[in-house]
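stage 2 :: seqdesign
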């Protein structure tokens, strides 16, 4: 079954806009929150009535039950590594993140932390950062999230949605 996944990160307590986006985007099969503030994801679950896959970031030290990372199977034979990214020094390069995702047999890695949209391939791993829903930094300075569409044949589409 194809996947249509909303990926967001770095909400930092500002969830009204992303909650509206989740509720008005048709056909979402999954929602992913990549940390800072992971508790926002828990609050969003109550607002939108959906389960949100979540990992915690560097500002989530009190979120004891939320993991720092996760691996998920996706449509089309894809496998994704989820991390906030801070433990891999993503401000200084993406090689460590790509190598770790590759060691887990993942072909995708989703991360946040930099508050800037990114979509590139490093050592055969597609790395996607949705940017920040609340406080963009670097890049073009626009608030954003990502809609990732995966079909059963392995095809992939990445759409950056500007808020």
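stage 2 :: out
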């Amino acid at each position: 079954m194809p996947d249509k996944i909303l990926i967001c990160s770095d909400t930092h307590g500002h969830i009204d806009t992303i909650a509206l986006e989740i509720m008005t985007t048709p056909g979402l099969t999954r929602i992913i929150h990549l940390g800072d503030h992971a508790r926002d994801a828990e609050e969003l679950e109550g607002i939108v009535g959906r389960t949100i896959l979540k990992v915690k970031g560097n500002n989530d030290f009190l979120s004891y039950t939320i993991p720092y990372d996760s691996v998920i199977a996706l449509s089309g034979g894809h496998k994704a590594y989820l991390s906030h990214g801070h433990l891999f020094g993503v401000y200084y390069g993406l090689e460590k993140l790509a190598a770790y995702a590759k060691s887990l047999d993942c072909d995708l890695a989703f991360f946040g932390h930099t508050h800037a949209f990114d979509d590139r391939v490093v050592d055969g791993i597609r790395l996607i950062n949705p940017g920040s829903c609340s406080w963009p930094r670097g890049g073009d300075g626009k608030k954003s999230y990502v809609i990732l569409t995966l079909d059963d044949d392995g095809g992939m589409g990445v759409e950056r949605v500007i808020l």
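stage 3 :: structure notes
- The two ends are 28 Å apart (CA to CA).
- Strands lie at 3-8, 30-33, 53-54, 69-73, 79-83, 108-110, 117-122, 125-130, 144-150, 156-162.
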